[in-house]
Design goal:
Neuraminidase, 2 domains, 8 helices, about 15% helix, SCF_F-box_component, F-box_dom, F-box-like_dom_sf, F-box domain-containing protein
């Protein structure tokens, strides 16, 4: 493995002089590179050398690599500066205080819902008026960059967002429904199936085919090994039922380089199962509501598709009931990978519960009337500049919808 001295840019080595007891090389490449985005921006005021080095693209890419991947939520909030605002929140289990663990990464002046995330970017959906479809926009919460996206037509839905490594472009994977009847809208004669939209290109979505499994309904995908992976959460009555043991249980996988689809076997689990990122590999967690147990399978070998039942978490029902009274309304949960292990997040009404892999209730957070919605997306903060932003009409920085 290369040393920091070998990989740091020449400009950084040239300015690596001692300040007190630590050389700049250590301060920059061991300390500053690990800071969250806001503290790092404040550190740029220390001296010109720090500002120059921490603004360089190679440093910003290294900084992004060191950021944790955080589960995100949305919440409605009361008034601030005379505006009713909507928060995008992140949960950081490594933070020192409760306020820092569940914290706002963006405050918006309207109601937006995260649809997808990638490399510090959030794809947001804003509901339109009654009878119309949602409107999409793209933002970077760390830099307060935002731009509305030229709408794909009314009968597109978003499947995911990804970087296309061969070109450096960021792209949306869209799905045009086979059958979708909306009153008062003209019939669309274009081909149903999956499409790719390149951000900032000015080009319409490009058709790439219709895999049989695309007719299923999916949650937020997990991106690893240059692929997007989905677990089917609903499927129409058909011969291709993904839960049919005779057919095998499968993920749908999209190769983001070749932009083609394939299938991948997954563990034999119940219908109430969801996919998550297990530190660079895949995990599947399964609800057993009757026993209040969460089973977690982890992919041991990506190529051979070997799975292992690694955790069985018995929920601390008695402790949770002492706070919320009724546990029967529990539906939303998420599993996140932390330092090689896992922790479980459960939302019930206005509460968020943090549970470790032994079933111990670690923390509880009460949101009151602000509420809390779980989306399954992850945010890994980034200060890297993206060239597609200025190409989008309506692009702005530190302006609405950011407060």
């Amino acid at each position: 493995m290369e040393s920091h001295q070998a990989t740091m840019p020449k400009a950084a080595r040239a300015t690596a002089t001692r300040r007190g007891s630590l050389p700049d090389e250590i301060v920059i490449w061991e300390i500053l590179v690990r800071l969250p985005a806001k503290p790092l921006l404040r550190c740029r005021a220390v001296c010109r050398a720090w500002r120059r080095i921490t603004s360089a693209r190679d440093f910003l890419l290294a900084h992004h690599d060191h950021q944790p991947s955080l589960a995100i939520f949305s919440g409605h909030n009361p008034w601030i500066r005379g505006v009713h605002y909507h928060s995008i929140l992140a949960f950081d289990p490594r933070a020192a205080t409760d306020n820092d663990r569940l914290h706002a990464v963006a405050q918006l002046d309207d109601v937006f819902y995260p649809q997808a995330s990638c490399d510090g970017l959030l794809l947001l959906s804003k509901l339109g008026s009654i009878g119309s479809t949602s409107r999409l926009s793209i933002c970077n919460p760390a830099t307060h960059q935002h731009a509305p996206l030229p709408g794909p037509p009314w009968n597109f839905s978003t499947m995911g967002m990804y970087p296309h490594r061969p070109t450096g472009e960021y792209r949306l994977l869209l799905q045009r429904e086979r059958c979708k009847v909306v009153p008062d809208l003209p019939p669309n004669k274009d081909q149903p199936g999956c499409y790719v939209l390149t951000l900032g290109s000015g080009q319409p979505p490009r058709y790439i085919g219709w895999p049989e499994t695309a007719s299923w309904i999916f949650n937020v995908p997990v991106r690893t090994h240059d692929c997007l992976h989905w677990y089917p959460v609903y499927y129409p009555e058909s011969d291709s039922n993904p839960y049919d043991p005779a057919c095998g249980i499968k993920f749908m996988v999209f190769d983001t380089i070749a932009e083609s689809f394939r299938e991948m076997h997954q563990p034999v689990v119940s219908n109430y199962s969801y996919i998550f990122d297990m530190g660079g590999t895949l995990g599947v967690y399964t609800h057993d509501h009757s026993a209040q147990v969460i089973d977690i399978h982890v992919l041991q070998n990506y190529e051979s598709e070997v799975w292992d039942l690694k955790y069985r978490i018995k929920l601390p029902v008695a402790e949770i009931k002492s706070l919320v009274g009724d546990f029967d309304n529990y539906r939303d949960s998420d599993v996140i990978s932390v330092d090689g292990g896992v922790l479980l997040l459960v939302t019930i009404s206005e509460w968020l519960f943090h549970i470790d892999s032994d079933g111990k209730l670690v923390n509880s957070f009460y949101r009151g009337r602000d509420g809390l919605s779980m989306h399954g997306c992850r945010l890994k903060q980034s200060l890297v500049e993206h060239t597609f932003f200025p190409a989008l009409e309506g692009y702005a920085v530190n302006a609405s919808p950011f407060i």
